[in-house]
């Protein structure tokens, strides 16, 4: 049996994925989580073969979750199932050690086949994204610039960002200035939009 944990913050979709995979004779859903931290805890305790996760989730994104699992040396292989068809997300996912990246509108049989492939040590990447990832623009942001820009895009002030990330306000402004410059944007709002649309946040 292939033991999997599913992380998805939309309850209806989470239930649908569980029901769908229960129809497969060789796949067992051993845990479900509605945010990234829950998923990490489940993977630490249950050691599933595969983690099926969305990208955008509360408390910890799917990409942060994949990086955390890799950093802790856990054997669980990670598959992203998302609505975000952006090459920037795919490149970041692969850099975090993700083995599969599918879109939520993929046929049901594609998901089960992808889980089997990833479990066997292979990769499963949505073909339309695999092609785009080779030609798409490279992510110019470093991790700290990404964190600061994401919080700015959520409407946080420089002082709030500084407090959340334990940085000085001046350092936060420097990171924002660098991100704005790298993205050739006119302000933090435009920089956030450009980075988000490219899949770099």
List the helices and strands and how they pair.
Blueprint: E1 2-7, H1 11-22, E2 27-33, H2 36-46, E3 50-53, H3 62-71, E4 77-82, H4 87-95, E5 100-103, H5 108-119, E6 124-125, H6 127-135, H7 143-153, H8 158-165, H9 169-182, H10 188-198
Parallel strand pairs: 1-2, 1-3, 3-4, 4-5, 5-6
How is this structure best described in words?
By secondary structure, this protein is α/β, with parallel strands linked by helices. It has 2 domains: 134 residues, Rossmann fold, CATH 3.40.50; 56 residues, Arc Repressor Mutant, subunit A (Orthogonal Bundle), CATH 1.10.10.10. Helices cover 53% and strands 14% of the residues. The protein has a 6-stranded parallel beta sheet, with helices on both faces. Helix 1 links the parallel strand 1 and strand 2. The longest helix has 14 residues. The mean pLDDT is 87. InterPro entries: CheY-like_superfamily (IPR011006), Sig_transdc_resp-reg_C-effctor (IPR016032), Sig_transdc_resp-reg_receiver (IPR001789), Tscrpt_reg_LuxR_C (IPR000792), WalR-like (IPR039420). GO terms for molecular function: DNA binding. This is Response regulator. Pfam families: GerE, Response_reg.
Please outline the major beta sheet: 6 strands, parallel
Distance from N terminus to C terminus (CA atoms, Å) equals 35 Å
The portion of residues assigned to helices is 40-55%
Radius of gyration: 18 Å
Q: What coarse outline follows from CA principal-axis ratios?
A: elongated
CATH architecture of the largest domain: 3-Layer(aba) Sandwich
Structural class: alpha/beta
Mean pLDDT: 87
- The CATH topology of the largest domain turns out to be Rossmann fold
CATH superfamily of the largest domain: Response regulator
Number of strands: 6
Q: How many domains is the backbone divided into?
A: 2
Percent strand equals 5-15%
Strand order of the largest sheet: 2-1-3-4-5-6
Number of helices: 10
The H-and-E topology, N to C, reads as EHEHEHEHEHEHHHHH
Low-confidence stretches: none
CATH class of the largest domain: Alpha Beta
């Amino acid at each position: 049996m292939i033991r999997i944990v599913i992380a998805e913050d939309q309850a209806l979709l989470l239930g649908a994925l569980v029901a769908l995979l229960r129809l497969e004779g060789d796949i067992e859903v051993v845990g479900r989580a509605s945010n990234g931290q829950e998923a990490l805890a489940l993977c630490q305790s249950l050691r599933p073969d595969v983690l099926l996760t969305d990208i955008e989730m509360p408390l910890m994104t799917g990409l942060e979750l994949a990086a955390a699992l890799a950093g802790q040396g856990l054997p669980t292989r990670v598959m992203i199932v998302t609505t975000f068809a952006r090459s920037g997300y795919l490149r970041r996912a692969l850099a975090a050690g993700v083995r599969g990246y599918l879109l939520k509108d993929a046929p049901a049989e594609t998901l089960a086949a992808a889980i089997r492939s990833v479990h066997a040590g292979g990769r499963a990447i949505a073909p339309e994204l695999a092609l785009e990832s080779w030609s798409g623009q490279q992510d110019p942001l470093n991790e700290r610039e990404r964190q600061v820009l994401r919080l700015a895009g959520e409407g946080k002030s420089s002082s709030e960002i500084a407090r959340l990330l334990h940085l000085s306000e001046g350092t936060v402004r420097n990171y924002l200035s660098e991100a704005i410059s790298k993205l050739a944007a006119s302000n933090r709002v435009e920089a956030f939009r450009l980075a988000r649309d490219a899949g770099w946040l």
